[in-house]
Amino acid sequence: MNTTNTMSEKRVRVRFAPSPTGGLHMGGVRTALFNYLFAKKHNGDFILRIEDTDQTRYVKGAEDYIIEALKWCGIEPNEGVGFGDGPYAPYRQSERKNTGIYMKYAQKLIEAGGAYYAFDTEEELEEMRKRLEAAKVVSPQYNHITRMNMRNSLTLSHDEVQKLLDSGVPYVIRLKVPRNEEIRFYDIIRGWIVVNSSTIDDKVLLKSDGMPTYHLAHIVDDIEMKITHVIRGEEWLPSAPAHVLTYKYLGLENQMPQLAHLPLILKPDGKGKLSKRDTSGLPMFPLNWHDERTGESYIGYRESGFFPEAFINMLALLGWNPGNNQEILSKEEMIQLFSLEKVHKAGAKFDPEKTKWFNQQYLRKKDKLELAKLLEPILKENNITADLEYTAKVCELMKEKAHFVKEIWEFGKYMFVEPDKYDEKVIQKKWNPDSQKQIQEIKTLLQNIEPFEADNIHHALDNFSKEKGKIDYQLIRTLLTGVSSGPSLVHIMEILGKSKTLKRLETALEKLAVTQN
Ligand code: GLU
Fold first, then answer.
1. Main-chain dihedrals φ then ψ at residue 317, nearest 5 degrees
2. Which of 74, 175, 227, 398 could cross-link with 408 by S-S, CB 3.0 to 4.6 Å?
3. CA of 45 to the centre of ligand 1 (A)
4. Ligand 1 pocket, mutate which of 232, 247, 262 (most atoms under 8 A from CB)
Protein backbone atom coordinates (compact mmCIF):
# COMPACT_ATOMS: atom_id res chain seq x y z
CA MET A 1 0.00 0.00 0.00
CA ASN A 2 1.28 3.41 -0.81
CA THR A 3 0.03 6.84 0.18
CA THR A 4 0.50 8.38 -3.22
CA ASN A 5 -1.71 5.90 -5.08
CA THR A 6 -4.84 6.74 -3.22
CA MET A 7 -3.97 10.39 -3.23
CA SER A 8 -4.09 10.64 -6.95
CA GLU A 9 -7.63 9.28 -6.84
CA LYS A 10 -9.12 11.13 -3.90
CA ARG A 11 -8.86 14.58 -2.43
CA VAL A 12 -6.92 14.26 0.81
CA ARG A 13 -9.13 14.91 3.83
CA VAL A 14 -7.78 14.54 7.35
CA ARG A 15 -9.24 15.39 10.69
CA PHE A 16 -8.09 16.35 14.14
CA ALA A 17 -10.66 14.85 16.47
CA PRO A 18 -10.01 15.78 20.08
CA SER A 19 -12.36 14.98 22.93
CA PRO A 20 -13.11 18.02 25.06
CA THR A 21 -12.08 16.26 28.25
CA GLY A 22 -9.44 18.76 29.38
CA GLY A 23 -6.84 21.18 28.13
CA LEU A 24 -5.32 20.22 24.80
CA HIS A 25 -1.71 19.42 25.63
CA MET A 26 1.32 19.61 23.40
CA GLY A 27 0.97 16.00 22.25
CA GLY A 28 -2.48 16.86 20.92
CA VAL A 29 -1.15 19.96 19.23
CA ARG A 30 1.50 17.85 17.51
CA THR A 31 -1.21 15.50 16.22
CA ALA A 32 -3.11 18.50 14.89
CA LEU A 33 0.07 19.87 13.34
CA PHE A 34 0.95 16.65 11.50
CA ASN A 35 -2.60 16.47 10.16
CA TYR A 36 -2.37 20.08 9.07
CA LEU A 37 1.02 19.65 7.37
CA PHE A 38 -0.15 16.53 5.58
CA ALA A 39 -3.34 18.21 4.38
CA LYS A 40 -1.54 21.30 3.13
CA LYS A 41 1.18 19.29 1.47
CA HIS A 42 -1.44 17.49 -0.61
CA ASN A 43 -3.72 20.48 -1.12
CA GLY A 44 -6.33 18.72 0.92
CA ASP A 45 -8.71 19.55 3.75
CA PHE A 46 -7.98 19.70 7.44
CA ILE A 47 -11.03 19.26 9.64
CA LEU A 48 -11.68 19.86 13.32
CA ARG A 49 -14.21 17.42 14.72
CA ILE A 50 -15.16 17.51 18.36
CA GLU A 51 -15.62 14.03 19.78
CA ASP A 52 -17.85 14.71 22.74
CA THR A 53 -19.85 11.52 23.03
CA ASP A 54 -18.58 10.79 26.51
CA GLN A 55 -20.65 13.33 28.39
CA THR A 56 -19.32 12.17 31.76
CA ARG A 57 -15.85 13.38 30.82
CA TYR A 58 -16.97 16.62 29.21
CA VAL A 59 -15.06 19.65 30.49
CA LYS A 60 -16.46 23.12 30.06
CA GLY A 61 -14.13 25.45 28.23
CA ALA A 62 -12.10 22.66 26.66
CA GLU A 63 -13.60 23.16 23.21
CA ASP A 64 -12.93 26.91 23.17
CA TYR A 65 -9.45 26.19 24.41
CA ILE A 66 -8.78 23.80 21.51
CA ILE A 67 -9.96 26.39 19.00
CA GLU A 68 -7.91 29.18 20.53
CA ALA A 69 -4.82 27.00 20.75
CA LEU A 70 -5.03 25.99 17.09
CA LYS A 71 -5.44 29.64 16.13
CA TRP A 72 -2.46 30.71 18.19
CA CYS A 73 -0.32 27.98 16.64
CA GLY A 74 -1.40 28.98 13.15
CA ILE A 75 -2.66 25.50 12.33
CA GLU A 76 -6.17 26.37 11.43
CA PRO A 77 -8.62 23.82 10.06
CA ASN A 78 -10.53 24.83 6.96
CA GLU A 79 -13.64 23.02 8.09
CA GLY A 80 -15.12 22.25 11.48
CA VAL A 81 -16.17 23.49 14.89
CA GLY A 82 -15.07 27.08 15.35
CA PHE A 83 -13.73 27.42 11.82
CA GLY A 84 -16.81 27.59 9.68
CA ASP A 85 -19.05 24.79 8.60
CA GLY A 86 -18.18 22.83 5.53
CA PRO A 87 -20.33 20.40 3.63
CA TYR A 88 -20.37 17.79 6.38
CA ALA A 89 -21.74 19.80 9.31
CA PRO A 90 -22.38 19.38 12.16
CA TYR A 91 -18.86 18.62 13.35
CA ARG A 92 -19.67 18.01 16.99
CA GLN A 93 -20.55 14.37 17.61
CA SER A 94 -23.18 15.18 20.22
CA GLU A 95 -25.05 17.10 17.50
CA ARG A 96 -24.46 14.45 14.87
CA LYS A 97 -26.07 11.90 17.16
CA ASN A 98 -29.43 13.63 16.73
CA THR A 99 -29.35 12.88 13.02
CA GLY A 100 -29.61 9.17 13.88
CA ILE A 101 -26.52 8.41 11.87
CA TYR A 102 -24.73 6.34 14.51
CA MET A 103 -27.77 4.20 15.21
CA LYS A 104 -28.13 3.60 11.49
CA TYR A 105 -24.60 2.22 11.23
CA ALA A 106 -25.01 0.19 14.43
CA GLN A 107 -28.12 -1.43 12.95
CA LYS A 108 -26.24 -2.17 9.75
CA LEU A 109 -23.58 -3.93 11.76
CA ILE A 110 -26.17 -6.02 13.57
CA GLU A 111 -27.82 -6.96 10.29
CA ALA A 112 -24.46 -7.95 8.88
CA GLY A 113 -23.80 -10.18 11.90
CA GLY A 114 -20.91 -8.02 13.03
CA ALA A 115 -22.53 -6.68 16.18
CA TYR A 116 -25.10 -7.74 18.75
CA TYR A 117 -27.34 -6.45 21.53
CA ALA A 118 -26.17 -6.99 25.08
CA PHE A 119 -28.60 -6.58 27.97
CA ASP A 120 -26.28 -7.27 30.87
CA THR A 121 -26.73 -5.05 33.89
CA GLU A 122 -23.85 -3.45 35.77
CA GLU A 123 -24.19 -6.14 38.43
CA GLU A 124 -24.03 -8.93 35.91
CA LEU A 125 -20.92 -7.46 34.34
CA GLU A 126 -19.33 -7.09 37.75
CA GLU A 127 -20.16 -10.69 38.55
CA MET A 128 -18.54 -11.78 35.32
CA ARG A 129 -15.38 -9.82 36.16
CA LYS A 130 -15.18 -11.42 39.59
CA ARG A 131 -15.72 -14.88 38.17
CA LEU A 132 -12.91 -14.39 35.66
CA GLU A 133 -10.60 -12.97 38.27
CA ALA A 134 -11.27 -15.91 40.54
CA ALA A 135 -10.39 -18.18 37.63
CA LYS A 136 -7.11 -16.21 37.34
CA VAL A 137 -7.88 -14.84 33.89
CA VAL A 138 -5.24 -12.16 33.34
CA SER A 139 -7.35 -9.62 31.54
CA PRO A 140 -11.04 -10.28 32.09
CA GLN A 141 -12.87 -9.29 28.95
CA TYR A 142 -16.26 -9.49 27.31
CA ASN A 143 -15.12 -11.54 24.33
CA HIS A 144 -15.74 -14.50 22.05
CA ILE A 145 -15.61 -16.88 25.03
CA THR A 146 -17.24 -14.97 27.86
CA ARG A 147 -20.09 -13.54 25.80
CA MET A 148 -21.60 -16.98 25.58
CA ASN A 149 -22.39 -16.87 29.32
CA MET A 150 -23.97 -13.44 29.19
CA ARG A 151 -27.37 -12.01 28.30
CA ASN A 152 -27.13 -10.92 24.70
CA SER A 153 -28.66 -11.52 21.32
CA LEU A 154 -26.18 -14.34 20.71
CA THR A 155 -27.37 -16.34 23.70
CA LEU A 156 -31.06 -15.35 23.88
CA SER A 157 -33.68 -16.43 21.42
CA HIS A 158 -34.89 -14.07 18.75
CA ASP A 159 -38.23 -13.67 20.53
CA GLU A 160 -36.66 -12.94 23.88
CA VAL A 161 -34.47 -10.31 22.33
CA GLN A 162 -37.43 -8.70 20.62
CA LYS A 163 -39.37 -8.67 23.86
CA LEU A 164 -36.55 -6.99 25.74
CA LEU A 165 -36.14 -4.40 23.00
CA ASP A 166 -39.88 -3.70 22.88
CA SER A 167 -40.15 -3.30 26.64
CA GLY A 168 -37.39 -0.72 26.66
CA VAL A 169 -34.83 -2.68 28.70
CA PRO A 170 -31.51 -0.86 28.45
CA TYR A 171 -28.97 -2.42 26.11
CA VAL A 172 -25.66 -1.72 24.49
CA ILE A 173 -24.51 -2.80 21.07
CA ARG A 174 -21.21 -4.66 20.97
CA LEU A 175 -18.82 -5.54 18.18
CA LYS A 176 -18.75 -9.26 17.55
CA VAL A 177 -15.06 -10.08 17.39
CA PRO A 178 -14.37 -13.52 15.95
CA ARG A 179 -12.19 -16.13 17.56
CA ASN A 180 -8.69 -16.75 16.28
CA GLU A 181 -8.70 -14.77 13.07
CA GLU A 182 -5.80 -12.83 11.70
CA ILE A 183 -6.45 -9.13 11.34
CA ARG A 184 -3.97 -7.42 9.06
CA PHE A 185 -3.68 -3.76 8.36
CA TYR A 186 -1.15 -1.31 7.10
CA ASP A 187 0.11 1.68 9.03
CA ILE A 188 2.03 4.25 7.01
CA ILE A 189 4.49 4.79 9.86
CA ARG A 190 4.72 1.25 11.19
CA GLY A 191 4.19 -0.96 8.14
CA TRP A 192 2.09 -4.12 8.21
CA ILE A 193 0.55 -5.07 11.52
CA VAL A 194 -0.96 -8.45 12.26
CA VAL A 195 -3.08 -9.10 15.31
CA ASN A 196 -4.94 -12.22 16.38
CA SER A 197 -8.59 -11.42 16.95
CA SER A 198 -8.74 -13.57 20.09
CA THR A 199 -6.84 -10.84 21.93
CA ILE A 200 -9.54 -8.25 21.23
CA ASP A 201 -12.63 -7.64 23.34
CA ASP A 202 -16.16 -7.11 22.06
CA LYS A 203 -16.06 -3.36 22.29
CA VAL A 204 -19.20 -1.43 23.09
CA LEU A 205 -20.20 0.52 19.99
CA LEU A 206 -23.41 2.11 21.21
CA LYS A 207 -24.10 2.85 24.86
CA SER A 208 -27.36 2.42 26.71
CA ASP A 209 -28.02 6.18 26.55
CA GLY A 210 -28.01 5.90 22.78
CA MET A 211 -24.67 7.63 22.50
CA PRO A 212 -22.07 5.96 20.31
CA THR A 213 -18.67 5.23 21.80
CA TYR A 214 -15.54 6.61 20.19
CA HIS A 215 -15.04 3.31 18.36
CA LEU A 216 -18.28 3.58 16.41
CA ALA A 217 -18.60 7.34 16.19
CA HIS A 218 -15.23 8.06 14.66
CA ILE A 219 -15.67 5.34 12.05
CA VAL A 220 -19.09 6.61 11.04
CA ASP A 221 -17.83 10.18 10.86
CA ASP A 222 -14.67 9.27 8.99
CA ILE A 223 -16.83 7.48 6.42
CA GLU A 224 -19.42 10.26 6.19
CA MET A 225 -16.84 13.02 6.12
CA LYS A 226 -14.84 11.23 3.45
CA ILE A 227 -11.68 11.12 5.53
CA THR A 228 -8.79 9.62 3.60
CA HIS A 229 -6.09 9.39 6.31
CA VAL A 230 -6.35 8.95 10.04
CA ILE A 231 -3.28 10.45 11.70
CA ARG A 232 -3.48 10.04 15.46
CA GLY A 233 -1.52 9.15 18.57
CA GLU A 234 0.02 5.76 19.21
CA GLU A 235 -2.37 5.17 22.10
CA TRP A 236 -5.03 4.32 19.51
CA LEU A 237 -3.01 1.59 17.85
CA PRO A 238 -4.38 -1.21 20.09
CA SER A 239 -7.95 -0.30 19.07
CA ALA A 240 -7.15 -0.21 15.37
CA PRO A 241 -7.80 -3.95 14.73
CA ALA A 242 -11.34 -3.55 16.09
CA HIS A 243 -11.82 -0.61 13.76
CA VAL A 244 -10.55 -2.61 10.81
CA LEU A 245 -13.08 -5.33 11.65
CA THR A 246 -15.87 -2.77 11.83
CA TYR A 247 -15.11 -1.51 8.33
CA LYS A 248 -15.05 -5.10 7.14
CA TYR A 249 -18.46 -5.89 8.67
CA LEU A 250 -19.88 -2.76 7.11
CA GLY A 251 -18.59 -3.94 3.76
CA LEU A 252 -16.61 -0.71 3.51
CA GLU A 253 -13.08 -2.01 3.74
CA ASN A 254 -12.17 -0.14 0.62
CA GLN A 255 -13.34 3.11 2.18
CA MET A 256 -11.19 2.70 5.24
CA PRO A 257 -8.84 5.63 5.62
CA GLN A 258 -5.14 4.90 5.64
CA LEU A 259 -3.76 4.78 9.15
CA ALA A 260 -0.75 6.52 10.64
CA HIS A 261 -0.09 6.22 14.37
CA LEU A 262 2.30 8.88 15.62
CA PRO A 263 5.04 7.99 18.10
CA LEU A 264 4.72 8.85 21.77
CA ILE A 265 6.35 11.96 23.15
CA LEU A 266 8.67 10.79 25.91
CA LYS A 267 9.99 12.42 29.07
CA PRO A 268 13.36 14.16 28.69
CA ASP A 269 15.17 11.09 30.07
CA GLY A 270 13.32 8.85 27.64
CA LYS A 271 11.76 6.85 30.47
CA GLY A 272 8.05 6.81 29.78
CA LYS A 273 5.44 9.04 28.30
CA LEU A 274 5.72 12.79 28.83
CA SER A 275 3.31 14.00 31.48
CA LYS A 276 2.36 17.29 33.06
CA ARG A 277 4.85 16.53 35.82
CA ASP A 278 7.89 15.77 33.69
CA THR A 279 8.45 18.68 31.39
CA SER A 280 11.48 20.01 33.30
CA GLY A 281 9.90 23.33 34.04
CA LEU A 282 8.46 23.94 30.59
CA PRO A 283 4.73 24.03 29.94
CA MET A 284 2.70 21.04 28.84
CA PHE A 285 -0.05 23.20 27.37
CA PRO A 286 0.04 25.66 24.48
CA LEU A 287 -1.94 28.29 26.41
CA ASN A 288 -2.67 28.82 30.09
CA TRP A 289 -5.09 26.15 31.23
CA HIS A 290 -7.21 26.13 34.32
CA ASP A 291 -8.88 22.87 35.20
CA GLU A 292 -12.11 23.74 36.95
CA ARG A 293 -12.62 20.24 38.26
CA THR A 294 -9.31 19.96 40.06
CA GLY A 295 -8.74 23.66 40.57
CA GLU A 296 -5.25 23.29 39.07
CA SER A 297 -3.77 25.91 36.78
CA TYR A 298 -1.06 25.36 34.23
CA ILE A 299 1.00 27.93 32.41
CA GLY A 300 1.06 27.87 28.62
CA TYR A 301 3.81 28.24 26.03
CA ARG A 302 2.17 31.45 24.86
CA GLU A 303 2.17 33.00 28.31
CA SER A 304 5.73 31.82 28.96
CA GLY A 305 6.92 33.93 26.07
CA PHE A 306 7.26 31.34 23.34
CA PHE A 307 6.61 32.33 19.76
CA PRO A 308 4.06 30.10 18.07
CA GLU A 309 6.47 29.55 15.15
CA ALA A 310 9.13 28.26 17.53
CA PHE A 311 6.64 26.09 19.38
CA ILE A 312 5.37 24.36 16.25
CA ASN A 313 8.86 24.05 14.79
CA MET A 314 9.91 22.22 17.95
CA LEU A 315 6.80 20.03 17.87
CA ALA A 316 7.24 19.15 14.21
CA LEU A 317 10.64 17.66 14.97
CA LEU A 318 9.28 15.48 17.75
CA GLY A 319 9.08 12.31 15.71
CA TRP A 320 9.68 13.73 12.25
CA ASN A 321 12.61 15.20 10.43
CA PRO A 322 12.86 16.46 6.91
CA GLY A 323 15.85 14.23 6.21
CA ASN A 324 18.28 17.08 5.52
CA ASN A 325 19.42 18.08 9.03
CA GLN A 326 17.54 21.35 8.75
CA GLU A 327 16.19 22.32 12.14
CA ILE A 328 14.75 25.76 11.68
CA LEU A 329 11.78 25.38 9.38
CA SER A 330 9.09 27.85 8.53
CA LYS A 331 5.57 26.52 8.29
CA GLU A 332 5.82 26.67 4.50
CA GLU A 333 9.05 24.67 4.51
CA MET A 334 7.52 22.10 6.83
CA ILE A 335 4.57 21.74 4.49
CA GLN A 336 6.83 21.27 1.53
CA LEU A 337 9.07 18.71 3.19
CA PHE A 338 6.49 16.82 5.23
CA SER A 339 5.81 13.17 4.65
CA LEU A 340 4.31 10.54 6.92
CA GLU A 341 6.87 8.03 5.69
CA LYS A 342 9.55 10.11 7.40
CA VAL A 343 7.79 9.99 10.76
CA HIS A 344 9.64 7.64 13.12
CA LYS A 345 7.90 4.93 15.04
CA ALA A 346 10.19 5.16 18.07
CA GLY A 347 9.14 7.52 20.83
CA ALA A 348 10.47 11.08 20.59
CA LYS A 349 12.18 12.58 23.62
CA PHE A 350 11.04 16.01 24.67
CA ASP A 351 14.08 18.26 25.07
CA PRO A 352 13.43 21.35 27.22
CA GLU A 353 16.77 23.02 26.42
CA LYS A 354 16.28 22.51 22.71
CA THR A 355 12.78 23.92 23.05
CA LYS A 356 14.20 27.14 24.47
CA TRP A 357 16.88 27.12 21.81
CA PHE A 358 14.18 27.15 19.14
CA ASN A 359 12.64 30.22 20.69
CA GLN A 360 16.04 31.89 20.79
CA GLN A 361 16.58 31.21 17.09
CA TYR A 362 13.24 32.76 16.23
CA LEU A 363 13.89 35.71 18.51
CA ARG A 364 17.21 36.37 16.78
CA LYS A 365 15.52 36.33 13.41
CA LYS A 366 13.01 38.97 14.41
CA ASP A 367 13.34 42.50 13.26
CA LYS A 368 14.27 45.00 16.00
CA LEU A 369 11.07 47.03 15.62
CA GLU A 370 8.93 43.92 15.93
CA LEU A 371 10.81 42.98 19.08
CA ALA A 372 10.43 46.50 20.43
CA LYS A 373 6.68 46.26 20.02
CA LEU A 374 6.70 42.96 21.87
CA LEU A 375 8.83 44.46 24.61
CA GLU A 376 6.64 47.52 25.06
CA PRO A 377 3.95 45.86 27.21
CA ILE A 378 6.66 44.48 29.49
CA LEU A 379 8.19 47.96 29.81
CA LYS A 380 4.79 49.35 30.56
CA GLU A 381 4.23 46.81 33.32
CA ASN A 382 7.46 48.11 34.81
CA ASN A 383 6.40 51.73 34.46
CA ILE A 384 8.96 52.51 31.79
CA THR A 385 8.14 54.79 28.94
CA ALA A 386 10.63 54.73 26.15
CA ASP A 387 10.75 55.85 22.59
CA LEU A 388 10.04 52.90 20.24
CA GLU A 389 13.16 53.52 18.24
CA TYR A 390 15.29 53.58 21.35
CA THR A 391 13.67 50.33 22.51
CA ALA A 392 14.36 48.83 19.10
CA LYS A 393 18.06 49.63 19.42
CA VAL A 394 18.13 48.03 22.85
CA CYS A 395 16.42 44.94 21.43
CA GLU A 396 18.98 44.69 18.65
CA LEU A 397 21.77 44.93 21.21
CA MET A 398 20.32 42.42 23.65
CA LYS A 399 18.71 39.86 21.40
CA GLU A 400 21.76 37.66 20.95
CA LYS A 401 21.64 36.29 24.48
CA ALA A 402 17.90 36.27 25.08
CA HIS A 403 15.66 33.22 24.67
CA PHE A 404 12.54 35.25 25.40
CA VAL A 405 11.48 38.86 24.88
CA LYS A 406 11.11 39.26 28.62
CA GLU A 407 14.80 38.45 28.97
CA ILE A 408 15.65 41.52 26.92
CA TRP A 409 14.12 43.45 29.80
CA GLU A 410 15.71 41.26 32.45
CA PHE A 411 19.19 41.44 30.93
CA GLY A 412 18.93 44.97 29.67
CA LYS A 413 17.01 46.75 32.39
CA TYR A 414 19.93 49.16 32.79
CA MET A 415 19.32 50.49 29.31
CA PHE A 416 16.10 51.99 30.67
CA VAL A 417 16.89 52.61 34.31
CA GLU A 418 20.07 54.01 35.79
CA PRO A 419 21.75 51.43 38.02
CA ASP A 420 21.31 52.06 41.73
CA LYS A 421 24.08 49.69 42.75
CA TYR A 422 27.24 48.30 41.23
CA ASP A 423 28.48 44.72 41.16
CA GLU A 424 30.23 44.44 44.54
CA LYS A 425 32.91 42.01 43.44
CA VAL A 426 34.07 44.24 40.60
CA ILE A 427 34.16 47.34 42.77
CA GLN A 428 36.02 45.63 45.58
CA LYS A 429 38.61 44.26 43.23
CA LYS A 430 39.03 47.14 40.86
CA TRP A 431 38.03 50.43 42.34
CA ASN A 432 40.94 52.53 43.57
CA PRO A 433 42.12 56.16 43.45
CA ASP A 434 43.89 55.48 40.14
CA SER A 435 40.76 54.17 38.51
CA GLN A 436 38.91 57.24 39.77
CA LYS A 437 41.45 59.43 38.00
CA GLN A 438 41.23 57.33 34.85
CA ILE A 439 37.44 57.55 34.74
CA GLN A 440 37.71 61.34 34.96
CA GLU A 441 40.04 61.33 31.96
CA ILE A 442 37.83 58.97 30.03
CA LYS A 443 34.88 61.24 30.69
CA THR A 444 36.77 64.10 29.11
CA LEU A 445 37.69 61.89 26.21
CA LEU A 446 34.10 60.79 25.66
CA GLN A 447 32.93 64.37 25.92
CA ASN A 448 34.90 65.20 22.79
CA ILE A 449 33.78 62.34 20.59
CA GLU A 450 31.58 63.46 17.75
CA PRO A 451 29.50 61.80 16.45
CA PHE A 452 29.07 59.62 19.52
CA GLU A 453 29.08 56.31 17.71
CA ALA A 454 30.38 52.89 18.64
CA ASP A 455 33.26 52.90 16.12
CA ASN A 456 34.50 56.30 17.15
CA ILE A 457 34.20 55.47 20.81
CA HIS A 458 36.06 52.25 20.23
CA HIS A 459 38.97 53.99 18.49
CA ALA A 460 39.18 56.73 21.05
CA LEU A 461 39.27 54.28 23.96
CA ASP A 462 41.73 52.09 22.13
CA ASN A 463 44.13 54.98 21.55
CA PHE A 464 43.72 56.11 25.11
CA SER A 465 44.58 52.63 26.30
CA LYS A 466 47.74 52.55 24.19
CA GLU A 467 48.93 56.01 25.13
CA LYS A 468 47.83 56.55 28.69
CA GLY A 469 47.56 53.15 30.26
CA LYS A 470 45.32 50.14 30.01
CA ILE A 471 41.61 50.80 30.42
CA ASP A 472 39.67 48.48 32.69
CA TYR A 473 36.64 47.96 30.51
CA GLN A 474 34.88 45.77 33.03
CA LEU A 475 35.02 48.54 35.56
CA ILE A 476 33.60 51.09 33.14
CA ARG A 477 30.87 48.64 32.19
CA THR A 478 30.00 48.14 35.84
CA LEU A 479 29.81 51.87 36.47
CA LEU A 480 27.58 52.35 33.46
CA THR A 481 25.29 49.38 33.83
CA GLY A 482 25.70 48.11 37.39
CA VAL A 483 26.64 44.64 36.13
CA SER A 484 29.94 43.09 35.13
CA SER A 485 29.04 41.57 31.78
CA GLY A 486 26.80 42.16 28.82
CA PRO A 487 26.89 43.04 25.16
CA SER A 488 29.39 45.37 23.46
CA LEU A 489 30.25 48.24 25.77
CA VAL A 490 30.78 50.81 23.06
CA HIS A 491 27.38 49.98 21.63
CA ILE A 492 25.83 50.38 25.04
CA MET A 493 27.43 53.84 25.17
CA GLU A 494 26.24 54.76 21.71
CA ILE A 495 22.66 53.76 22.47
CA LEU A 496 22.61 55.45 25.86
CA GLY A 497 24.00 58.53 24.13
CA LYS A 498 26.71 60.88 25.21
CA SER A 499 24.92 62.79 27.93
CA LYS A 500 23.51 59.71 29.70
CA THR A 501 26.86 57.94 29.46
CA LEU A 502 28.67 60.89 31.02
CA LYS A 503 26.01 61.39 33.63
CA ARG A 504 26.12 57.76 34.68
CA LEU A 505 29.89 57.87 35.03
CA GLU A 506 29.58 61.07 37.02
CA THR A 507 26.97 59.57 39.34
CA ALA A 508 29.13 56.50 39.83
CA LEU A 509 32.12 58.63 40.73
CA GLU A 510 30.06 60.52 43.26
CA LYS A 511 28.50 57.44 44.80
CA LEU A 512 31.74 55.52 45.02
CA ALA A 513 33.58 58.52 46.40
CA VAL A 514 30.97 58.70 49.16
CA THR A 515 31.22 55.00 49.97
CA GLN A 516 35.00 55.20 50.09
CA ASN A 517 35.16 58.07 52.54
N1 GLU B 1 -11.21 11.52 20.21
C2 GLU B 1 -9.96 10.83 20.10
C3 GLU B 1 -8.95 11.50 21.00
O4 GLU B 1 -9.29 12.41 21.71
C5 GLU B 1 -9.51 10.87 18.66
C6 GLU B 1 -8.70 9.72 18.22
C7 GLU B 1 -8.66 9.68 16.70
O8 GLU B 1 -8.06 10.60 16.13
O9 GLU B 1 -9.20 8.77 16.09
O10 GLU B 1 -7.80 11.18 21.01
1. -90, 5
2. 398
3. 18
4. 232
